[in-house]
Structure formats: C-alpha cells, structure tokens
User: Fold these one by one.
Assistant:
Number 1:
Amino acid sequence: MSDPKSSYGEPVDEPNGVDDVVGRANEGLADAEAARRDTGATETPAAETPADETEASRTADAEASADASSTTAEAPAAAEPDPWDSPEAASLDYTSSATPAPAADDSPTVVVPPVVTPSEPVVAEPAVVAAAAAPQPIFVQAPEAPRPRGNRAAAGAIGLLAAVAFAVLYLAVWLGVDAIKGDVTGANVGTTALEALATWSLWVPVVVFFIGFWLLGAIINRGRWGHWVVFGILVGVAAYGGHILGALFQAPFWNLTASEGAKLVEGELLAPLAIAAFIIGRELTIWFGAWAAARAKRVTELNIEAQREYERTLEAGPQLVQQ
C-alpha cells in the first residue's frame, strides 16, 4: 500500500493515534496558511476572509477525517481486548449456544397431522358434529308371528280319562256276563273283580283303547266333533282287537301251538266281551271326543285372536315406550 499524502502531494507520516490525527490536522491548517501567504495572495476584503478561511478549514477537516478513517481501519486488531479472555466468558455454557438457522430448502412442505393424546382437547370437525347431532336410526325387532296352539296334548289327557271309563265299563260287562253264566254271585263278586284286575284280558283292551283314542285325537287335532263321531268307529275296532289280543296274552300265546292259537281267536270273535269292547270303545270315543272337540274350538278361537293381534301390531308399526 502506498504512503499517505497530504492534499498538496507531500508524504505524510502514518498517525499512531487520535493525538496524531489532531496534530496532523493542525499542521495541515498551518501549511495551508503558509502556502497562501507564499503565493502572495492579496488580502481579501473583510467580508470575504471568513468565507475563504471556512472553506479551507472544511477541506482540511475532510482530509484529516479521511486520514483518520484509513488509519483506524489499518490499526492492528491486537489493540482491542479479546472478549473470550474475560472471566464472564469463562463462566458461560457453550453447550447452550443457539443453533444456526438452517439453509432455505426448496423441497415441498409436508404437513404432518398432529397426534392427539387423551390429555389434549379434541376439536370435532363441523361434519362430525353435524353427523353426531343428526338423529340416529333405532332398530327394533319385529314381533314374531304367533305359533298356533294344538289340541293333541289335551286329547291325550282326555283319552286317559276315557280309558279309565273304558276299564270300569268293561269290567262291569265282564262281571255281568259271568253273573249270567252263574260264575259270579253276591258272595264272590268282590273276589272275582280282584282276580279280573290282575289279568291281561282286562288291561290289554284298555291300553289298546287309549292308544287308539290318542292317535285319533292327534290326527283330528283341532277338528270338529263330527270327525270324532265318524272316525270313532276306528277306536271301537281297536278296542275289539284289544279284547282278542288280551285273550292271547292271558293264554299265554307263547305256550300255544298255531292251531290252539287260531282256535282261541276264533272262539273270541263273537264273544260277548268282544262285542262289548267294540261298543264301549265306539261310544266313549264319541262322548269324550265331544269334550276334546270343545277344547279344540276354544284353542282355534285363541289362535284367531292371537293372529289378529299380531296383524294389528304390524299395522301399528314400532312404538317407542318412555320409561
């Protein structure tokens, strides 16, 4: 770098401080005054002298300021104290220094939705709030159609009572036939009745009659009394067959030969008790069947009313019951 010079081209020593700058400025003013005198300039009027002096002083001050700025810029940095050598700097925590700002990134910004934890308040979206506020559908279970009631169990119960009546009447006919034959008298009627109660000939027809009555009741079910009157003859036939079967069990048939069994059956086909079994079975079926038919009529009415109630419930639709 070249040596600094004054405004008149003279080399100037480099100042070492503020005092040197001020001294140079004064010297510059003195040199300017001496140069003005050497050039033989005439004395200006009193009105113009201050202006020339002021202009000269401004020029000198500007040059001095420029010299001072260059001198200050070129001053060694060692003259300033190092701030990192102070006790305050030694006590600082360098690990907590601010992180430098990252450089600008032109990549597209990816917005990650925040993760909502249970401790954070959840802000519902307007669409979600509207959906929650909308009335929710209420699912109701449609009523089941009523199951039609049957009359088979009632027919079986009525058949038990009819079987008891059949046993009493059948035993009475038995004792009456033996009384006509002279085998039963007033003295042995009780003994003969007890002996008849312990025979197959009495209970097999009773059991067959009950089975026939209950099967007919299961077939007719909720049918009218006319069905019992017409098909009651089948129960009579079953009772008639029960009498013959009872005679075979009483023999007993497993101790008889085929010819002996056939002869026994032939002798019982037109026996008074066989005919009595048919008539008793037929009549009891008619009268106890009337009872079963009346019960069936009541069951039919209940089924019709239940069906009507079911249809009214379907027409009314689901109802909300306030608790």
Note: Residues 41-52, 70-79, 94-98 have pLDDT under 50 and may be disordered.
Number 2:
Amino acid sequence: MDKDFKFTNAVVILPLIFVVVIWLVFWLEVRFDYDFIQNGIYPRTFSGLQGVVFSPFIHADTEHLYNNSLPLLVLLAALQFFYPRKSLKVVLFGILLSGILTWSIGRENYHIGASGLIYVLFSFIFFKGIQTKHIRLIALSLTVIIVYGGLVWYIFPTPDVPGEKSISWEGHLSGLLAGFILSIIYKTPEYKKVPKYDWEKPDYNSEEDKFMQRFDEKGNFVNLPVVEDEIILTYYFSNIPVSYEITSNEKSESKPES
C-alpha cells in the first residue's frame, strides 16, 4: 500500500496553478478596476448560480486572498500526494457541491472566496483518513485537525459587526458538508488492507480452524478428542477347517550300499 504514496510534479503543480489563478484574477480586478464580486454566489437567484463556478476565484482584498492562499497550497498538496486518483474529482465536484449548498442556504448577499474549497479539502482529508483505517492517512487526519481544527468554529452563524467584513459561515458549512459527502462517495480500494492470515479473510470460519477447536465455549484450552484408529487385520482369516500332517524330518532317499 505504501507504494501509492509517491511524490510527483503534480503535488507542487496543482496547488501552484490554483493559487496563481486566484491571484491573477485579483490582479485583473485591480488592474482594470473591475468588480468581480457581482459574479459571486447570490443565493436563490438564477444569476447567482454563476457564482457556483466563479466564486472560489474571487476575493475582496489582499488580506482575504492571502488568508486563503496558504491553506490552499498545503491542503491541495496533501490531497494530491495522498489521494492522487481522486484529487481532481474532489476539487471540481467539491467546488460545485459546496457552491450549490451555499446558493441554497446562504443569506441574501454575495458569497465569494476560496474558503468553501478549503473546507471541502479539510473535511475530505480528515474524514477519508478515518474511513480508510490506514495508519498514515489517520496520521494525516490528526495532523489536519491539529493545524486547521480551528476552522470548525467558523461554520456557525456569526453576527454581523458594523464596519467589519462579514464571514460566509454558510459557505464554510457547505464546504464541510460537501467534503464529508465526497469522502463517502469516493472509495479508495488501493488503500484496502490485503488479508495476510486466514482469520482476516471475510469467509473465515472459526469452527473449521484447527487452532480454534482447541478452545471450549469458556475459552479454556483443551485437548482434541482422541480418534481411535480402525483395526486392520494383517493376516488371512477363514472359517474353512484345515488339517495338518506331521512327518519326520528325514530324507526319503535310499541309503547307499557299503
């Protein structure tokens, strides 16, 4: 199973491409003085559906962009390294699913930023590692929860403070739910433990195991019952009477004359 954990160029390229794209979009917004916020998710409106695709690439300012860039680099690299066969699907369908959920439950305001995708990655990596029961993936899940566990607090409703930016807790919650759903949908048979012993196989029957037969119902070790061997006669037996004649042990030759 450990042979599946291989470092490839995609581990670096995928996170870099995504982060470069969101920075490029922000640069275009500043350079040409264009406001992309209206292309974000606006819940329960037809025009707001465009944000399902575009919102992860739109950010309000450099602080918002910077706060999302570093977690994206780390989590996308971890996803590509440990789940290379599922990484693109998780990213693409994670964006769509979290966006649709945000569009469904969000407040009537524009929801932008890649934080929804960050929660998708955080949720998928954590729950998938627990589900696989692979020691390295479980360790990855624990690492993620230690480093980014504080993200969980931002999935709950927070009051809007005048003069401060509001946080899209709906987008965070949607990302967390989307990551959990994807962790159940996408299976990882490559990390399934191969049975090494007979008792690890699904068709194992303890009643046919010679070793388990040495224990009674209370778990006490007992000797197996002695099986008596079948008696096989090694001589011929007959009920027909046989008579024997005894003769002297002498030769029946005539003696030579002297």
Note: The mean pLDDT is 85.
Number 3:
Amino acid sequence: MTERTPDREHLTDLLAQQWEAIAALVADLDENAWRRPSPLPGWTIFDVVAHVIGTESWLLGRTPPPHDPLRPKTDVRTLPHVRNEVAVLNEIWVDRLRPLSGKRLLALFDEVTEQRRAALVAKDDEAWAEPTVSPVGQVPYGRFMRVRLFDCWMHELDLADGIGRTVPEGGDRAETAFAELTLGLGRAVVKGAKAPEGAQVTLDLTGPVTRQVHVAVVDGRGVLLDTIEGTPTTTIRLDSGLFARLRGGRITVDEHLGEIAIDGDTDLGARLVRNLAFTI
C-alpha cells in the first residue's frame, strides 16, 4: 500500500508549533545551562539546538559559517559519535556555531525557523509532492518534512531530559512523529530480535501516545498490520515516552527494566526491546 503524503498545511503548522516549543523550553537558560550535557553523545543542550539550526539552514540552501581561525580546528570525522556523512555535516554545523552565546544561538534559531516556516507556506502542492532525497531515501518533500517533525520532536525530548524538565509528550505533534518511530519496526523484529517465521509481535503503548503496533513475520520480513488474529507470540507493554527514547537510542533497556512488561515469548520480547534503536 502506498503511503499518503502528509497534508501540507497541517504539517507546516505542526513544524511551526514544534519550533516554538523548542524555543520556549530553552528561553530562560543561562550560559552554564546551555552547556550542560544532553542525552546525545558528545552534544550539549547548546549543540542540540545548533543542530536543528544547521539542518533547517541547509534546507534554506545555506552552508555552514566559516571556521573561526582563533579556535582549534576539530576533525569531526574522528569523533566517536560521527559514523556517516550526514553526521559529518551535522557536526560541522554544530562546531561552527559553538562560539556563539546561548542567547545569540536562540535568536538565530528564531530567525532560521521563521524563514523555514515562510518557505513551507510558500510551497504549493506540486512542490510538496516533488521527490527529494531525505534520510529515509527519495520520498515526496512532504514526507521528508514529517521526518523533520520527528527529528525536532525527539530533540525537544533530548533538551527536556538534559535540562531536567517535563514537557507534554502527547498530542498532535507526537502522534504525527510516531509514524516515523513505528514504520521500521519490522526490521527490528526480524533483524534485531531474530523473530521466526510466523511470529506475531504486539507493542502495547500505554500513553501518552496510546496505540497498539502489530508486526508479523511473513516470508522473512516484518510486516506492520492493523490487527492480528489470535494471541500474539509476544506482547511488550511500555509507555510511549520510554519507547521513543529506546527507538532513538537515547537510553538503554537495563536502566528501565521495571517499566517494561513482556507476555508470551519473553525471550523474543527481551531481544526486541534490546534492539529497538534505529537512530542516534
């Protein structure tokens, strides 16, 4: 079945809301708080916001600022958390923005995201449907923007966790971002958990994004299903915030074993929760 491209006006509005939520979360930070570690290896709170600026600036057709000759030059390719060319570009943007103060970074974030919002509003339906290269392959531009919403939503959680604050983790933005979290679960079930042919796995997310996700192994592939017949081979029950952080590689299962319930084939379930991560 072909996935429908997300609605242009709705997704543009969600992205604008997401950027506003990030700005509000960090608006009152002092310079020390900006430099606290985030859940992402090698990155501070400042770096997470700088990364969002870098990606949205790239989508505006911009290149990273020049390197400050007074700062030591970092070979970003040697950093342990940089594993591919996309990560190299991300790291260059972050590194080039680090000399800014947190206050100046936030002003730049507001400027860039407002320009991006205007650029999205100016797109017509034809441009929204145009195939474009994205982190998930060549997809319609609108689908790429759903990936951007997911990325920015995850980074809001990173910022909140790093600062030590609680943010709403449900609602329309989260529901839309979750489409990206669940799409690749078939691979995690088959490649990561080594589920056998015919196995049926149910992930029961208890909220604030409440849903059941069903995956069946058919002809060696993990297939997402709307419903399954009979009793699942294994059922894994956890809240959606924990699921998102495990899928994003932000935390490890061992830190949260008491928050995950597994019924049925517990060995299969345990293998799956240890192999949920698909991005870091």
Note: The two ends are 29 Å apart (CA to CA).
